[in-house]
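Ticket #4471: structure export looks truncated?
Reporter: QA, pipeline team
Priority: medium

Steps to reproduce: submit the single chain below to the structure queue and open the exported record.
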Amino acid sequence: MGKQMTEMLKGTLEGIVLAVLAGRSAYGYEITAWLREQGFSDIAEGTIYALLVRIEKRELVDVEKVPSEKGPPRKVYSLNAQGRQYLDEFWKTWRFLSERLEQLHETGGR
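Actual output as written to the record:
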């Protein structure tokens, strides 16, 4: 991934992770693995774990500790009502920006 892609991803990764959690509950490694399967191959696990800590502190997710066969319990994250509201706002913002960028691309700023 190039530097430009990395920078753009930083601004949208929170919304991407919340969108993943809107579909299903998951723990950090599952989210990272799914993102890599979708082509986000350069995303580090540490980046996802740090983001999960932030959205947990902001109370956008509920967390359940689930026993693990290998080591300590896993923290499984699920989107709560506050997180759904935040995600709805993210999608509205995304639509606004993508429409404006597409217009700019098509018209060349004219």
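Status: closed, not a bug. The export was complete when the record was re-opened. Leaving a note from the reviewer for reference: DSSP finds four helices and three strands in the chain.
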